[in-house]
Write a structure and sequence with these properties.
The chain is mainly alpha-helical. The chain has one domain. The two termini are 27 Å apart.
């Protein structure tokens, strides 16, 4: 995910920033649609959903190995 391009990052556990991000996207059709298209292109460039799942599995496995 690319913050501001394919989605929006908000701090974990912070409800107000999440609410603001959702409200901002709901109020801006063009930005929301553009972000959705960019996200789809990003997924397809990564090999589709199968590629994304494989990458997630790889990253998850690496973090598990690091944490013991």
């Amino acid at each position: 995910m690319i913050d501001g391009h394919t989605g929006l990052l908000v701090p974990p556990g912070r409800h107000r920033p999440l609410g603001r991000a959702i409200a901002d996207l709901l109020a801006d059709d063009a930005r929301r649609i553009a972000m959705g298209h960019a996200a789809r292109e990003h997924v397809m460039a990564a090999g589709g959903w199968d590629g994304v799942a494989q990458k997630f599995d790889q990253i998850y496995g690496e973090h598990l190995a690091e944490s013991g």
